[in-house]
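Example record used in the benchmark description.
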Amino acid sequence: MAKLFLAIERAEYDTKKRFAFEGLPIPPATAPREKPLPGSLSTEYEPLKISSRFEKTVVMGAQYAKLHIYLENLGKSTILGCTDAELAPWSVHAQDLNACKVAIRCDGPIILHNVSDLILILECHQLRIHSMQNCQIFAKVSNDRVIIEGSKNLAFFGYSGTELTLASFAVDDFDWPTSEAENPHYKLLDPQYVDNDDFEETSELLRIWKNTAFEEAGVNSHVD
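Model output (structure tokens):
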């Protein structure tokens, strides 16, 4: 029996010794952390902000991949995101944009707030719009639904490849809950029945976006 107790004590001692902490604990705030590589997935919510641009062309390159993007206070500018799914951001939040042309692909949601007079080509999982007016939206939405609120004079279309098409998604308007009457805030339109002159800028934006070269590695974003 004595040998059994001795064996148990020795096992407990070995276990305690095996799992003992060595050195002083390091507070989380001061613990060293590896800096993520450009384009790699960050474990924290660290949005990259693009703000206060006027009459500029902003090309979002590989370092925006798999991150959260925040666009703010942009006027009369062109914003181009990567067309490659591997280089797309996780989410895009844009507010206070006026008279801009925007073409972005996003893995997750795109949220637009307080924007006006935009031409938008968007590819995303979810599209939510609040306080938008006088905009053309060409979208490919994987959950097949767009949510709008506090918005008016919107025209929705779809696109496929390099072609502008009829929208293949539904629109839910928080300010117009009934489907029994025509919604005065937006229209779902087919480009083939609309004057082609209205789409010259959109067609040119789509062409530029699809033909813009994005490197898979390194940083090639720029602002003109």
